Amino acid sequence: MNTLSTLPSRSKPGLIRSLPMLALALLAYNVALQMGHDFRLPPAQPLWQATLISGAQWSAGWNEVMIASGLALLFIEILKSTRTTQHSTLEHLLSMLVFIIFIVEFLVVAGAGTNVFLLLGLMSLIDVMGGYAISIAVARKDLNIT
What are the residues facing 60 on neighbouring strands? Predict the structure, then answer.
């Protein structure tokens, strides 16, 4: 009996792999809100603090961590959109759904009406637009359309 045939196929990405990375940022923001973090206020105690060579004081709090994490997740999403799979349409649909959730939550939830949430939502918009544009460019290259 061939044991290799019983192994799961890696070509099926499933829902977890198709899930947009920026959904994690949306989830993390909402969890932080539920835990009582107010993104509108400057941090009472910054996470990092340093004196730069120029003498300026630099500090970073949870707001900056959320934005930097969102940028890292956006980078991963852009890398994901460069591959073409059977599930690319599902991935684009889920990215659009995450963007719509960002819009609705920004307009309806008081705690989401912050610059941090707006920037995360803009990253989601870039993910949607960039995902479609990159997928079209990759498909053209795959089909050798000039």
Answer: 48
